[in-house]
Description:
2 domains, 3 strands
Amino acid sequence: MESGAPLSVDRGTDHLHHHLGHKGEHRHLTGALVFTLGFAFVEAVAGWWSGSLALLSDAGHMLTDSTALGLAALAAWLARRPPSLRHTYGLVRLEVLAALANGMLMLVLISFIAFEAVQRFSQPRDISGGTVTLVAAIGLLVNLAVAWRLSKGERTLNTRAALMHVMGDLLGSVAALSAGLVITFTGWTPIDPLLSLVVAGLILVSAWRLLAEAVHVLLEGVPEHISIEGVAADLAAIPQVTSVHDLHIWTLSSGKVALSAHLDMASLDHWPAILARARQILSDWHGIGHATLQPEARDNALHHH
């Protein structure tokens, strides 16, 4: 039976595995959200109490990341919903939309950091180096714990987006810690905006890659790790298959690739065996689990072309 019917009972085991995977992902993301949001509050209070704009800015950074983690956790929870008559693949694509939103949030954050850094170069401000050092050190430990928790989960596009935010926070904590130490021992305040720009640049590279990948998925692009020419050649090499056309390969969500194709046949007599062989090749050689294949007898193929 072809896998074009997502509500088929044949997908029960696969869906259960998928459901459990997203359940674990949701748990990791929720834990990361609680940690990040909690420390953002602590950092904001410390920044307000000490009058440190650097800490207040980093609190804003972590608050933005908490929003991103919240989006990711919500998407992971919604993705656990089973397929329905209106959403026959379920809501797995929400992870891609969440990753896209996360990337856009990061671009906004980078713009804010860059603007703030330029302002500080032209108008240096007093910074409490000791307070920045202490809170940044605690923040570094918190972010390490969150990053470790996320890395233990399933590496989907969604959790990678969340992990990217946490790595940005981790770099931010290292930069703030370095700035705090330099300011404490030398009093040279321009180190603060300088390191902020370096971190913003690193985050920009990750955000750009994530956005490019998410947009590629939404545009139904062929996954980077799959050669469409190779897939076509492998299918055409099956005995009784004369050619392959109308071949489409796209990503449903992380780890789930779909394919549809028409196979021109010398005859339809051996189609069940050919279909089984084609599915095995697609699954074992190319990692494509959702395949919809349409056979066309040679006479029909000639009319088609």
